[in-house]
Design a protein that fits this description.
single chain, 153 residues, alpha+beta, eight-stranded mixed sheet, 5 helices, binds zinc ion
Length: 153
Amino acid sequence: MKTLDRFQRAHLRVALDDIKPITFDDQNRIKTAFVSGSRAKTYQVIVRRNAGITTECLLDTGAGNKNCKGSSSAVCYHALAVLLYSAKNLELEASICQRKVDAELLQRIHGEIYKVTSIHAPNNPLWLVVNDPGGEKKRKDKGESSTDYTAIA
Ligand SMILES: [Zn+2]
């Protein structure tokens, strides 16, 4: 199974500790966030969710924004960290995979897979798997019966 390599994971651990959400969508998912990067740099990550997820990452230069270098050819680790943080914030389990087939192996019942691309690198996607470990319980609490599924089958 190929998820992220060690170098990428090390960066993600750093970034996860340094995320300040700014705005959320109507499902409480992060839309924009500040990420503290290396050497006291600050990045602003913008997440657009439509058919998949498109990310944009801007470095605050102190005299305006410029595109994050890492986002020019792939989804940068700042953006990945924001996506993982957003899921964690909602008590969901999330993983990033380089191949869709690996994401499918991690996907559980009611889990979702999202194609993630940088706005500058639409042809170099990563795959975000989001599973909801409390999902079945929450659905029951809301009064939705699991017999709905057997009725469809
Ligand atoms: Zn970035």
